[in-house]
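Fill in residues.
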Protein backbone atom coordinates (compact mmCIF):
# COMPACT_ATOMS: atom_id res chain seq x y z
CA UNK A 1 0.00 0.00 0.00
CA UNK A 2 1.09 3.56 -0.53
CA UNK A 3 0.09 7.03 -1.47
CA UNK A 4 -1.32 7.22 -4.93
CA UNK A 5 0.36 9.35 -7.56
CA UNK A 6 -2.71 11.54 -7.82
CA UNK A 7 -3.02 14.12 -5.08
CA UNK A 8 -6.42 15.49 -6.03
CA UNK A 9 -8.73 15.43 -3.01
CA UNK A 10 -12.36 14.32 -3.42
CA UNK A 11 -15.03 16.93 -3.84
CA UNK A 12 -16.65 17.94 -0.56
CA UNK A 13 -19.96 16.41 0.33
CA UNK A 14 -22.85 18.84 -0.18
CA UNK A 15 -23.63 18.32 3.48
CA UNK A 16 -20.05 19.10 4.41
CA UNK A 17 -18.28 22.42 4.77
CA UNK A 18 -18.07 23.65 1.19
CA UNK A 19 -16.54 26.93 2.34
CA UNK A 20 -13.23 25.25 3.12
CA UNK A 21 -10.81 25.03 0.23
CA UNK A 22 -9.72 21.46 -0.33
CA UNK A 23 -6.04 21.28 -1.08
CA UNK A 24 -2.88 19.29 -0.58
CA UNK A 25 -0.16 21.56 0.83
CA UNK A 26 3.37 20.18 0.68
CA UNK A 27 6.11 21.80 2.72
CA UNK A 28 9.85 21.27 2.89
CA UNK A 29 12.05 22.47 5.72
CA UNK A 30 14.90 23.23 3.29
CA UNK A 31 13.06 25.90 1.27
CA UNK A 32 12.21 29.55 1.87
CA UNK A 33 8.77 31.17 1.69
CA UNK A 34 8.94 31.79 -2.09
CA UNK A 35 9.77 28.17 -2.71
CA UNK A 36 6.93 27.12 -0.40
CA UNK A 37 4.45 28.94 -2.59
CA UNK A 38 5.79 27.12 -5.63
CA UNK A 39 5.47 23.79 -3.85
CA UNK A 40 1.88 24.56 -2.83
CA UNK A 41 1.06 25.21 -6.48
CA UNK A 42 2.77 22.04 -7.66
CA UNK A 43 1.25 19.89 -4.85
CA UNK A 44 4.04 17.37 -5.22
CA UNK A 45 3.89 13.81 -3.97
CA UNK A 46 5.20 13.29 -0.43
CA UNK A 47 6.39 9.70 -0.65
CA UNK A 48 5.66 6.26 -1.93
CA UNK A 49 5.52 3.61 0.77
CA UNK A 50 7.59 0.58 -0.20
CA UNK A 51 6.62 -1.67 2.69
CA UNK A 52 3.59 -3.90 3.09
CA UNK A 53 3.78 -4.66 6.79
CA UNK A 54 0.76 -4.76 9.07
CA UNK A 55 -0.35 -1.20 9.89
CA UNK A 56 -0.73 -0.21 13.52
CA UNK A 57 -4.21 0.79 14.69
CA UNK A 58 -5.09 4.44 14.47
CA UNK A 59 -7.15 6.14 17.14
CA UNK A 60 -10.84 6.61 16.65
CA UNK A 61 -10.66 10.05 15.11
CA UNK A 62 -14.20 11.19 15.85
CA UNK A 63 -15.44 11.36 19.42
CA UNK A 64 -17.72 13.52 21.47
CA UNK A 65 -16.52 17.10 21.70
CA UNK A 66 -14.71 17.67 25.02
CA UNK A 67 -14.84 21.16 26.49
CA UNK A 68 -13.63 20.73 30.03
CA UNK A 69 -10.49 22.39 31.33
CA UNK A 70 -8.44 19.22 31.36
CA UNK A 71 -8.84 18.68 27.63
CA UNK A 72 -8.10 22.36 27.03
CA UNK A 73 -4.81 21.92 28.90
CA UNK A 74 -3.96 18.87 26.81
CA UNK A 75 -4.78 20.79 23.65
CA UNK A 76 -2.48 23.63 24.73
CA UNK A 77 0.28 21.10 25.36
CA UNK A 78 -0.01 19.55 21.90
CA UNK A 79 -0.56 22.90 20.21
CA UNK A 80 3.15 23.61 20.59
CA UNK A 81 3.87 20.58 18.40
CA UNK A 82 1.75 21.90 15.53
CA UNK A 83 3.49 23.78 12.77
CA UNK A 84 2.75 27.54 12.85
CA UNK A 85 1.52 27.35 9.26
CA UNK A 86 -1.19 24.97 10.43
CA UNK A 87 -2.18 26.95 13.51
CA UNK A 88 -2.31 30.08 11.36
CA UNK A 89 -5.23 28.46 9.53
CA UNK A 90 -6.80 26.41 12.33
CA UNK A 91 -7.32 27.12 16.02
CA UNK A 92 -6.54 24.07 18.19
CA UNK A 93 -9.38 23.56 20.68
CA UNK A 94 -9.24 20.18 22.44
CA UNK A 95 -7.48 16.84 22.39
CA UNK A 96 -9.75 14.05 21.16
CA UNK A 97 -7.58 10.95 21.03
CA UNK A 98 -4.16 9.48 20.43
CA UNK A 99 -2.55 6.49 18.78
CA UNK A 100 0.87 4.97 18.19
CA UNK A 101 1.76 7.53 15.55
CA UNK A 102 -0.91 10.20 15.87
CA UNK A 103 -2.76 12.77 17.95
CA UNK A 104 -6.26 13.97 17.13
CA UNK A 105 -7.62 17.35 18.15
CA UNK A 106 -10.78 19.33 17.61
CA UNK A 107 -10.04 22.49 15.65
CA UNK A 108 -11.84 25.50 14.23
CA UNK A 109 -11.10 27.05 10.89
CA UNK A 110 -10.03 30.60 11.74
CA UNK A 111 -11.76 32.23 8.78
CA UNK A 112 -15.08 30.36 8.91
CA UNK A 113 -15.19 29.17 12.57
CA UNK A 114 -16.27 25.77 11.27
CA UNK A 115 -15.32 22.83 13.53
CA UNK A 116 -13.22 19.93 12.27
CA UNK A 117 -11.12 17.06 13.56
CA UNK A 118 -7.42 17.31 12.81
CA UNK A 119 -5.22 14.23 12.88
CA UNK A 120 -1.50 14.88 13.34
CA UNK A 121 0.56 11.88 12.21
CA UNK A 122 4.25 11.33 12.88
CA UNK A 123 5.87 10.21 9.63
CA UNK A 124 9.58 10.33 10.46
CA UNK A 125 9.62 6.62 11.30
CA UNK A 126 8.92 4.15 8.47
CA UNK A 127 6.00 2.61 10.37
CA UNK A 128 4.24 5.93 10.88
CA UNK A 129 4.92 6.92 7.29
CA UNK A 130 3.34 3.68 6.09
CA UNK A 131 0.23 4.07 8.26
CA UNK A 132 -0.24 7.62 7.04
CA UNK A 133 0.30 6.67 3.40
CA UNK A 134 -2.24 3.85 3.66
CA UNK A 135 -4.91 5.99 5.28
CA UNK A 136 -4.40 8.89 2.89
CA UNK A 137 -4.55 6.59 -0.13
CA UNK A 138 -8.06 5.60 0.96
CA UNK A 139 -9.38 8.92 2.24
CA UNK A 140 -8.30 10.80 -0.87
CA UNK A 141 -10.47 8.47 -2.95
CA UNK A 142 -13.74 8.56 -1.03
CA UNK A 143 -16.67 10.96 -1.15
CA UNK A 144 -19.89 9.54 0.28
CA UNK A 145 -22.42 10.81 2.79
CA UNK A 146 -21.85 7.77 5.02
CA UNK A 147 -18.04 7.83 4.92
CA UNK A 148 -15.92 10.33 6.85
CA UNK A 149 -14.74 13.13 4.55
CA UNK A 150 -11.16 14.30 4.19
CA UNK A 151 -11.18 18.10 3.90
CA UNK A 152 -7.57 19.18 3.69
CA UNK A 153 -4.03 17.87 4.11
CA UNK A 154 -0.89 19.65 5.30
CA UNK A 155 2.37 17.82 4.75
CA UNK A 156 5.69 18.42 6.47
CA UNK A 157 8.91 16.38 6.60
CA UNK A 158 8.15 14.98 10.05
CA UNK A 159 4.38 15.30 10.34
CA UNK A 160 1.27 15.16 8.23
CA UNK A 161 -1.95 16.88 9.32
CA UNK A 162 -5.27 15.56 8.04
CA UNK A 163 -8.35 17.74 8.46
CA UNK A 164 -11.56 15.72 8.54
CA UNK A 165 -15.24 16.12 9.24
CA UNK A 166 -15.98 16.30 12.95
CA UNK A 167 -18.69 13.87 14.05
CA UNK A 168 -20.35 15.12 17.23
CA UNK A 169 -23.36 12.80 17.40
CA UNK A 170 -21.66 9.97 19.28
CA UNK A 171 -21.08 6.30 18.60
CA UNK A 172 -23.77 3.99 17.27
CA UNK A 173 -24.35 2.14 20.55
CA UNK A 174 -24.37 5.39 22.54
CA UNK A 175 -27.24 6.56 20.36
CA UNK A 176 -29.09 3.28 20.87
CA UNK A 177 -28.84 3.61 24.65
CA UNK A 178 -29.66 7.32 24.80
CA UNK A 179 -32.83 7.04 22.71
CA UNK A 180 -34.92 5.37 25.41
CA UNK A 181 -36.89 3.59 22.70
CA UNK A 182 -35.40 1.25 20.13
CA UNK A 183 -37.10 -1.11 17.69
CA UNK A 184 -36.08 -3.29 14.76
CA UNK A 185 -37.11 -0.45 12.48
CA UNK A 186 -34.59 1.81 14.21
CA UNK A 187 -31.94 -0.88 13.75
CA UNK A 188 -32.60 -1.10 10.00
CA UNK A 189 -32.34 2.68 9.65
CA UNK A 190 -28.82 2.60 11.09
CA UNK A 191 -27.76 -0.52 9.19
CA UNK A 192 -29.02 0.86 5.87
CA UNK A 193 -26.64 3.81 6.22
CA UNK A 194 -23.72 1.57 7.14
CA UNK A 195 -24.44 -0.78 4.25
CA UNK A 196 -24.63 2.15 1.84
CA UNK A 197 -21.19 3.30 2.96
CA UNK A 198 -19.67 -0.19 2.92
CA UNK A 199 -21.14 -0.92 -0.51
CA UNK A 200 -19.58 2.29 -1.83
CA UNK A 201 -16.18 1.35 -0.39
CA UNK A 202 -16.31 -2.14 -1.83
CA UNK A 203 -17.18 -0.82 -5.29
CA UNK A 204 -14.05 1.34 -5.09
CA UNK A 205 -12.01 -1.74 -4.20
CA UNK A 206 -11.58 -0.74 -0.54
CA UNK A 207 -11.82 -3.21 2.36
CA UNK A 208 -12.15 -1.51 5.77
CA UNK A 209 -11.03 -4.46 7.94
CA UNK A 210 -11.97 -2.86 11.26
CA UNK A 211 -15.71 -2.28 11.19
CA UNK A 212 -17.18 -2.11 14.69
CA UNK A 213 -19.71 0.09 16.55
CA UNK A 214 -16.93 2.37 17.86
CA UNK A 215 -16.06 3.28 14.27
CA UNK A 216 -19.66 4.13 13.32
CA UNK A 217 -20.39 7.69 14.40
CA UNK A 218 -23.29 10.09 13.95
CA UNK A 219 -22.47 13.36 12.26
CA UNK A 220 -24.60 15.43 14.65
CA UNK A 221 -26.85 14.76 17.68
CA UNK A 222 -30.11 15.23 15.77
CA UNK A 223 -32.49 12.39 15.00
CA UNK A 224 -31.96 12.91 11.25
CA UNK A 225 -28.16 12.62 11.45
CA UNK A 226 -26.29 10.54 8.93
CA UNK A 227 -24.11 7.72 10.24
CA UNK A 228 -20.44 7.80 9.23
CA UNK A 229 -17.89 5.03 8.77
CA UNK A 230 -14.62 6.23 10.29
CA UNK A 231 -11.09 5.08 11.18
CA UNK A 232 -9.40 3.81 8.03
CA UNK A 233 -6.13 2.90 9.72
CA UNK A 234 -6.43 -0.73 8.62
CA UNK A 235 -8.28 -0.14 5.36
CA UNK A 236 -6.66 -1.26 2.13
CA UNK A 237 -7.27 -1.61 -1.57
CA UNK A 238 -7.91 -5.15 -2.74
CA UNK A 239 -9.92 -8.18 -1.80
CA UNK A 240 -13.05 -6.99 -3.60
CA UNK A 241 -12.70 -8.34 -7.10
CA UNK A 242 -13.03 -4.74 -8.29
CA UNK A 243 -10.48 -2.89 -10.37
CA UNK A 244 -9.04 0.17 -8.68
CA UNK A 245 -6.97 2.89 -10.31
CA UNK A 246 -4.48 3.30 -7.48
CA UNK A 247 -0.72 3.23 -7.28
CA UNK A 248 0.77 0.48 -5.21
CA UNK A 249 4.39 -0.54 -4.67
CA UNK A 250 3.42 -4.20 -4.79
CA UNK A 251 3.31 -4.53 -8.58
CA UNK A 252 3.24 -8.33 -8.33
CA UNK A 253 -0.43 -8.04 -7.44
CA UNK A 254 -1.22 -5.25 -9.92
CA UNK A 255 -1.03 -4.59 -13.62
CA UNK A 256 1.29 -2.13 -15.33
CA UNK A 257 -1.03 0.82 -14.80
CA UNK A 258 -1.76 0.18 -11.14
CA UNK A 259 -5.07 -1.60 -11.76
CA UNK A 260 -5.94 -4.19 -9.13
CA UNK A 261 -5.91 -7.81 -10.19
CA UNK A 262 -9.48 -9.09 -9.96
CA UNK A 263 -8.20 -12.21 -8.20
CA UNK A 264 -6.11 -10.31 -5.68
CA UNK A 265 -6.90 -11.40 -2.15
CA UNK A 266 -5.74 -10.08 1.21
CA UNK A 267 -3.57 -11.94 3.70
CA UNK A 268 -2.65 -9.67 6.59
CA UNK A 269 -4.06 -10.81 9.93
CA UNK A 270 -5.48 -7.67 11.52
CA UNK A 271 -8.63 -6.24 13.05
CA UNK A 272 -10.46 -6.22 16.38
CA UNK A 273 -10.72 -9.77 17.79
CA UNK A 274 -14.49 -10.05 18.35
CA UNK A 275 -15.21 -8.80 14.81
CA UNK A 276 -12.58 -10.76 12.87
CA UNK A 277 -13.85 -13.25 10.31
CA UNK A 278 -12.86 -16.93 10.51
CA UNK A 279 -10.76 -16.79 7.35
CA UNK A 280 -8.67 -13.95 8.81
CA UNK A 281 -7.99 -15.91 12.00
CA UNK A 282 -7.11 -19.01 10.02
CA UNK A 283 -4.66 -17.00 7.89
CA UNK A 284 -6.40 -17.82 4.68
CA UNK A 285 -6.47 -15.41 1.74
CA UNK A 286 -9.58 -13.29 2.23
CA UNK A 287 -11.75 -10.71 0.53
CA UNK A 288 -14.05 -7.81 1.41
CA UNK A 289 -16.43 -10.46 2.76
CA UNK A 290 -14.62 -9.94 6.08
CA UNK A 291 -16.41 -6.58 6.32
CA UNK A 292 -19.75 -8.31 5.85
CA UNK A 293 -18.93 -10.72 8.68
CA UNK A 294 -18.18 -7.72 10.91
CA UNK A 295 -21.53 -6.20 9.91
CA UNK A 296 -23.24 -9.41 10.98
CA UNK A 297 -21.59 -9.08 14.39
CA UNK A 298 -22.62 -5.41 14.56
CA UNK A 299 -26.24 -6.25 13.66
CA UNK A 300 -26.28 -8.88 16.41
CA UNK A 301 -25.02 -6.35 18.97
CA UNK A 302 -27.38 -3.58 17.89
CA UNK A 303 -30.40 -5.87 18.30
CA UNK A 304 -29.39 -7.45 21.60
CA UNK A 305 -26.61 -5.53 23.35
CA UNK A 306 -24.62 -8.79 23.41
CA UNK A 307 -21.67 -10.11 21.43
CA UNK A 308 -22.22 -13.25 19.33
CA UNK A 309 -18.61 -14.26 20.04
CA UNK A 310 -17.03 -13.32 23.36
CA UNK A 311 -14.63 -14.91 25.82
CA UNK A 312 -11.98 -13.72 28.27
CA UNK A 313 -9.60 -16.20 26.65
CA UNK A 314 -8.44 -15.03 23.24
CA UNK A 315 -7.87 -18.62 22.14
CA UNK A 316 -11.40 -19.72 23.16
CA UNK A 317 -12.81 -16.62 21.47
CA UNK A 318 -11.06 -17.48 18.22
CA UNK A 319 -12.16 -21.09 18.50
CA UNK A 320 -15.81 -20.07 18.78
CA UNK A 321 -15.45 -17.77 15.77
CA UNK A 322 -13.83 -20.36 13.49
CA UNK A 323 -16.57 -22.81 14.50
CA UNK A 324 -19.25 -20.18 13.92
CA UNK A 325 -20.81 -20.93 17.29
CA UNK A 326 -23.36 -18.36 18.41
CA UNK A 327 -27.01 -18.48 19.45
CA UNK A 328 -30.17 -16.40 19.72
CA UNK A 329 -30.81 -17.25 23.35
CA UNK A 330 -31.75 -14.87 26.13
CA UNK A 331 -33.48 -11.49 26.03
CA UNK A 332 -34.43 -9.87 23.79
CA UNK A 333 -34.10 -12.58 21.12
CA UNK A 334 -37.56 -14.16 21.69
CA UNK A 335 -39.00 -10.77 20.69
CA UNK A 336 -36.79 -10.33 17.63
CA UNK A 337 -38.27 -11.31 14.27
CA UNK A 338 -37.13 -14.35 12.31
CA UNK A 339 -36.39 -12.07 9.38
CA UNK A 340 -33.89 -10.11 11.48
CA UNK A 341 -32.25 -13.35 12.61
CA UNK A 342 -32.13 -14.52 8.99
CA UNK A 343 -30.33 -11.29 8.06
CA UNK A 344 -27.67 -11.98 10.70
CA UNK A 345 -27.32 -15.64 9.76
CA UNK A 346 -26.74 -14.71 6.12
CA UNK A 347 -23.87 -12.45 7.17
CA UNK A 348 -22.21 -14.97 9.50
CA UNK A 349 -21.70 -18.19 7.51
CA UNK A 350 -18.21 -19.65 7.77
CA UNK A 351 -17.89 -19.81 3.99
CA UNK A 352 -17.25 -16.21 2.85
CA UNK A 353 -18.54 -17.05 -0.64
CA UNK A 354 -22.04 -17.59 0.78
CA UNK A 355 -22.20 -14.33 2.77
CA UNK A 356 -24.38 -11.53 1.56
CA UNK A 357 -22.59 -8.77 -0.29
CA UNK A 358 -23.30 -5.18 0.75
CA UNK A 359 -25.68 -4.78 -2.18
CA UNK A 360 -27.50 -8.01 -1.36
CA UNK A 361 -27.68 -7.11 2.33
CA UNK A 362 -29.26 -3.71 1.70
CA UNK A 363 -31.89 -5.46 -0.40
CA UNK A 364 -32.60 -8.15 2.19
CA UNK A 365 -36.36 -8.07 2.97
CA UNK A 366 -35.77 -7.09 6.61
CA UNK A 367 -33.65 -4.07 5.62
CA UNK A 368 -35.43 -3.14 2.40
CA UNK A 369 -38.85 -2.96 4.10
CA UNK A 370 -37.31 -1.38 7.23
CA UNK A 371 -38.67 -4.23 9.36
CA UNK A 372 -42.24 -3.52 8.22
CA UNK A 373 -43.36 -7.05 9.09
CA UNK A 374 -41.46 -7.14 12.38
CA UNK A 375 -42.73 -6.47 15.86
CA UNK A 376 -42.47 -2.85 16.95
CA UNK A 377 -41.71 -3.92 20.49
CA UNK A 378 -39.30 -1.66 22.34
CA UNK A 379 -36.02 -3.57 22.74
CA UNK A 380 -34.28 -0.74 24.56
CA UNK A 381 -34.47 -2.13 28.10
CA UNK A 382 -32.96 -5.50 27.24
CA UNK A 383 -30.30 -4.00 24.99
CA UNK A 384 -29.25 -1.40 27.57
CA UNK A 385 -29.15 -3.97 30.36
CA UNK A 386 -26.99 -6.33 28.30
CA UNK A 387 -24.64 -3.51 27.33
CA UNK A 388 -24.26 -2.44 30.96
CA UNK A 389 -23.47 -6.00 32.02
CA UNK A 390 -20.89 -6.31 29.26
CA UNK A 391 -19.32 -2.99 30.23
CA UNK A 392 -19.12 -4.16 33.84
CA UNK A 393 -17.38 -7.38 32.80
CA UNK A 394 -15.03 -5.54 30.46
CA UNK A 395 -13.95 -3.12 33.18
CA UNK A 396 -12.50 -6.03 35.16
CA UNK A 397 -10.30 -7.21 32.30
CA UNK A 398 -8.16 -5.79 29.51
CA UNK A 399 -10.29 -4.19 26.79
CA UNK A 400 -10.31 -5.49 23.24
CA UNK A 401 -7.80 -3.77 21.01
CA UNK A 402 -7.02 -3.85 17.35
CA UNK A 403 -4.43 -6.51 16.63
CA UNK A 404 -1.96 -7.26 13.88
CA UNK A 405 -0.55 -10.56 12.68
CA UNK A 406 2.18 -10.52 15.31
CA UNK A 407 -0.37 -10.36 18.12
CA UNK A 408 -2.21 -13.35 16.78
CA UNK A 409 0.92 -15.50 16.82
CA UNK A 410 0.88 -15.56 20.62
CA UNK A 411 -2.66 -16.82 21.06
CA UNK A 412 -2.54 -20.17 19.34
CA UNK A 413 -3.72 -19.55 15.79
CA UNK A 414 -1.66 -22.53 14.72
CA UNK A 415 -3.91 -24.68 16.90
CA UNK A 416 -6.98 -23.12 15.31
CA UNK A 417 -5.67 -23.99 11.87
CA UNK A 418 -5.28 -27.62 12.97
CA UNK A 419 -8.77 -27.48 14.47
CA UNK A 420 -10.24 -26.42 11.15
CA UNK A 421 -8.39 -29.19 9.29
CA UNK A 422 -9.74 -31.73 11.73
CA UNK A 423 -13.28 -30.45 11.16
CA UNK A 424 -12.83 -30.90 7.39
Amino acid sequence: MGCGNSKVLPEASKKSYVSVVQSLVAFSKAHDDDELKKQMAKQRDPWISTSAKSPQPAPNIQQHTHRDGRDQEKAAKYKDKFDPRVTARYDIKALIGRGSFSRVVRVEHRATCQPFAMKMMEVEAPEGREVCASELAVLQRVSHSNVIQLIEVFQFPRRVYMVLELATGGELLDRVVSRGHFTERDATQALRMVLAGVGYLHKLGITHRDLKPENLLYYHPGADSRLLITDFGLATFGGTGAASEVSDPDRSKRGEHGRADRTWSLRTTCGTPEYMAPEVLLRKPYSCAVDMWALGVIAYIVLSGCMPFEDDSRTRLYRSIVRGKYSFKGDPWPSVSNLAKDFIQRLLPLDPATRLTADQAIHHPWVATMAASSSMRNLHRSISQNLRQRTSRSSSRCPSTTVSSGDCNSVGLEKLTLLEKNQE
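Confidence is low (pLDDT under 50) at residues 1-59, 63-67, 242-263, 406-424.
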